[in-house]
Every structure is written in structure tokens, then in C-alpha cells.
Amino acid sequence: MRCSLCKKDKAVIKYRHSNMYLCADCFKKVFEKKALVVLKRAGVLRGSGKLIVVAVSGGKDSLNTLYVLHKYSEIYDYDVIALLINEGISGYREYTIKGMISLCNKYKIEYKIVSMENEIGFTVDFATELYKKRKIRWKPCTVCGVFRRYLLNKHAREMGADFLATGHNLDDEAQTILLNIFQDSLYRVIQADYISREIVPKMVPRIKPLYYIYEKESVVYALLNKIPAWHIECPHAQYGMRADIRRFLNKLEDLKPGTKINLLLSREKIIQKTKSLKMPMKYCEICGEPSTHEICRACQIRNVINKFL
Ligand code: SF4
Ligand code: ZN
Predict the structure, then answer these.
(1) Full domain range(s) for residue 89
(2) How many angstroms is it from 215 CA to the middle of ligand 2?
(3) How remote is the CA of residue 140 from the centroid of ligand 1, in Å?
(4) How far is the CA of 236 from the centre of ligand 1 (A)?
């Protein structure tokens, strides 16, 4: 098939929901334009000298985000620094760290690695062992997610970030919407779309440059740009509900292309209608970080796990 835009080159990707085919060059332009739309809407390009800290895991999505933001930083006036939280997941994290270092070295991007074990006192592997022995009730992904978000916000803020960019793509977002609905967390559904909706002191605004980009597009973009992403799955992914939702949504998208984007569009409409609904933001009585509870989730989990150290 020929590209639907330039009508010249051979297509490398097909968009089923719009029945469009794109060649490598047109696809890259479309991909980058979608990221630029988020940057513009989020106000990243307003003014000058802003700092974007990119939360990097070393997978294709976060490395694509870093690559695109770095590319635009050569045109627009902002700086980019990569930040990776090493949660201590052996057989996984050590490989993805290599991917980030290799991309940063190639494009001379500054980076920082924070060890969860040094900062919090234990690793996700350790918490997983406790979960398997039924000593704690939190699944590995809960512990991992809570502390990753906690450390990303804390370090991005200390680095002076104006924005914290994450690599969430359209598929991740569609899964998260359903996950939160299934867990009766409406606040989480409306808390953020491509940018965090509530800006409170000590909380760095989050942006998701890949918000309108399908997982499939992210795979193709990484391949075309030779992004050194490791195709390796976390050994703890099996404990989460996300994998089931992912399969379910992929099946639905297959049957009815456009299902995932429709979920995102519905959320944007709900956000518009619920602007007055505010998250009851407080500051943790123990660590002082922003939280919806008196004691933040990180401190709640830490208090329990500390007993086993
Ligand atoms: Fe963390 Fe779960 Fe992702 Fe593994 S799958 S990196 S434990 S959130
Ligand atoms: Zn706390």
C-alpha cells in the first residue's frame, strides 16, 4: 500500500479506525505533531527556559517521550533532563537502565537515577516476597506505582522541574480509565488527561506527550528511530489486573476500531462537566508530601514493610 498522505512511499503503518496508511516519513511527522499538540495545550511552550523532567523507565514509551522532547528542545526554548527510579526489580530494571543511558549518551541528555532502596529502605522485589508470603496486602504493582510516583514528584520538584513528563500512551490511558472505574476511583479518572488537572503546591504538573499515540505507533516509532528500548517484561506484571484489561481492550479495538480513543474522549467530556469536583488535597503528616489522606499511601505502606526489615 502507498502512503495516504504523500501518495509516494510504501506504507509502514495502517490506522484501522481512519483507514489511513502512512509511510515512514509521514508517520514520524504525524507522531511528533501529536506530541506537539500536547506540549502546546499544556502550556509548555509558553514563555522560555522551562525545565521538563522526563520520567524514564527505559521502555519504548518513555524513551520515545524523551527522544521527542529532546528533539523539540532544539527548536523551542526549554530544557530536558531524564529521571529514572530504580525500584529494584532484578532481571528487568538493570536492562532498561542500559537503554536509557545509551539514548542519553547518544544525544547528550542529562540524566539522574534514584534508587528506591536507598531512598525508602526496600525494593519492589522485597515487597513482592512479602506479598507472596501473605505478609502484606499490597500487590507489587501497587507498591511500585506508589513509590515511583512519590519519588518522581519529589525529585522532579527538587530538580526545579516545571513539568514532569511521563510516557503514558493512548492504550495505557484507556486501560487506566477502566481500571479506575472498576476500582470505584472516579477522582482518578478525572484527575488527569494529557495534563494533571489540579495544580497544588509541591506537586509538579504532569504531562503525557504520547497521550494521543497508540501503543502500536509507539512500537513503530521506536523501531524507525532506532530507540534502544528493551523488549522485556517485568516479572511482577502477572500480579496486576492491567494485563487482563489490556487483552480485553485490544479485543474490543479489534472488533470496533476507535474504542480506545472514544474512552479518552469520553473522559475529556467528563472532566469538562466535573471541573468543580476537587480532590481533597492535604499534606502527609509524616513526610509532608501532597496526599489525599492524612498519612500518604507511601508512608502507610512504608510503616508496614519497615516491620519486616
Ligand atoms: Fe512496577 Fe508492576 Fe510495572 Fe513491574 S509491572 S514495573 S512491578 S508497575
Ligand atoms: Zn507521607
Answers:
(1) 26-277
(2) 33
(3) 7
(4) 6
The answer to whether residue 117 is domain-embedded is: yes
Can you tell me which atom of ligand 1 is nearest the CA of 239?
2
Answer for the pair 82, 112: CB distance below 8 angstroms, yes or no.
Answer: yes
Total of domains in the chain: 1
Instruction: State the CATH number of the domain containing residue 84.
Output: 3.40.50.620
Whether the CB-CB separation of 294 and 282 falls below 8 Å is answered with yes
CB under 8 A, 24+ apart: contacts of 220-227 = 220/12, 220/13, 220/27, 221/27, 221/28, 221/31, 221/64, 222/60, 222/63, 222/64, 224/12, 224/24, 224/27, 224/28, 225/28, 225/64, 225/67, 227/60, 227/63, 227/64, 227/67, 227/99, 227/103
Q: Which atom of ligand 1 is nearest to the CA of 140?
A: 7
Per-residue pLDDT of the chain (309 residues; tens, 9 = 90+): 899 999 999 999 999 888 999 999 999 999 999 999 999 999 999 989 999 999 999 899 999 999 999 999 999 999 999 999 999 999 999 999 999 999 999 999 999 999 999 999 999 999 999 999 999 999 999 999 999 999 999 999 999 999 999 999 999 999 999 999 998 888 888 888 899 877 789 999 999 999 999 999 999 999 999 999 988 889 998 887 888 999 999 999 999 999 999 999 999 999 888 877 777 789 999 999 999 899 999 999 999 999 999
Would residue 127 count as lying in a domain? yes
